[in-house]
Write a structure and sequence with these properties.
CATH topology of one domain: Nucleoside Triphosphate Pyrophosphohydrolase
Structural class: alpha+beta
Order of helices and strands: EHEHEHEEEEEHEEHEEEHHEEE
Radius of gyration: 17 Å
Shape: globular
Number of helices: 7
CATH superfamily of one domain: Nucleoside Triphosphate Pyrophosphohydrolase
CATH architecture of one domain: Alpha-Beta Complex
């Protein structure tokens, strides 16, 4: 069986654009460049996992329903053993090639991989739309040193949702208050994403929903109003499904 190949970009490119620790929202400065053909290449995963000169591109999707976010616990079947038993609010994985399109690159190719991942990891009879809201770089852990997260938000209505793979356990929607209580048991990327949400709550000007695209804190409960950060980054599942080439691997 051929070894898994994952999409990467050179760490030096991140340093050139502006290295950071944690989460950032200036998406336009990073995403177009790291997805350019001349800046990406597929590398055997066994090599990429131990090579801090490379960053593996990982879509990380927060699924929202009303004032709640989807949460799950990574089971023993997770490919990234260092994250087993950790709580997570992100659906995502490595971007892999398909034999018929080893050199697929670019933003459209990336978006197709995101859509494929969502519909493989979550069983749901609905078209899904995502938008990029933030980026994550965490060099404080061995896992983070070789990965780069692109944080998306997916808005979900009343459609039924269930897990698509056994490595996703205890899948449920939780309020921000419930997530805050579980923060210490979450993987680092989910902690950073949740902190981003809570920071928006604290910076809101007053109780009740506002029109500035923030998470706002009302007198009764923490209200979730997701920000619109990046324009022109939405895609639906129906976008060129017959031409989908990229695949994503859940095993981060």
């Amino acid at each position: 069986m051929a070894e898994e190949l994952v999409l990467t970009f050179p760490r030096r490119l991140l340093d050139e654009i502006g290295s950071f620790q944690g989460l950032r929202t200036d998406i336009g400065a990073y995403v177009p460049r790291i997805l350019e053909a001349q800046n990406t290449r597929y590398v055997p995963r066994s090599l990429a996992e131990d090579d801090p000169s490379l960053k593996q591109i990982i879509p990380y999707v927060l699924v929202r329903r009303g004032d709640t976010l989807l949460h799950y616990v990574r089971g023993k079947g997770s490919g990234e053993k260092r994250l087993v038993a950790k709580g997570s609010i992100g659906i995502g994985g490595h971007i892999n090639h398909r034999d018929e399109d080893l050199f697929g690159v670019g933003f459209d190719y990336y978006e197709e991989a995101v859509q494929r991942e969502l519909h493989e990891e979550l069983l749901i009879d609905a078209d899904l739309t995502t938008r990029i809201v933030a980026l994550i770089n965490d060099d404080s852990t061995p896992v983070g040193q070789v990965h780069f997260g692109v944080v998306h938000v997916c808005e979900l209505g009343d459609q039924h949702l269930s897990r698509g793979e056994p490595c996703i356990t205890e899948l449920r929607f939780l309020t921000l208050d419930q997530l805050r209580e579980r923060r210490d048991a979450m993987e680092t990327w989910s902690q950073l994403s949740l902190d981003f949400v809570l920071a928006q709550v604290l910076s809101a000007s007053g109780p009740g929903p506002s029109d500035n695209g923030r998470y706002v804190n009302s007198a009764r409960q923490t209200r979730l109003v997701l920000p619109v950060v990046s324009p022109s980054t939405s895609s639906g599942r129906s976008a060129r499904p017959s031409q989908t080439r990229a695949t994503t691997d859940r095993s981060r």
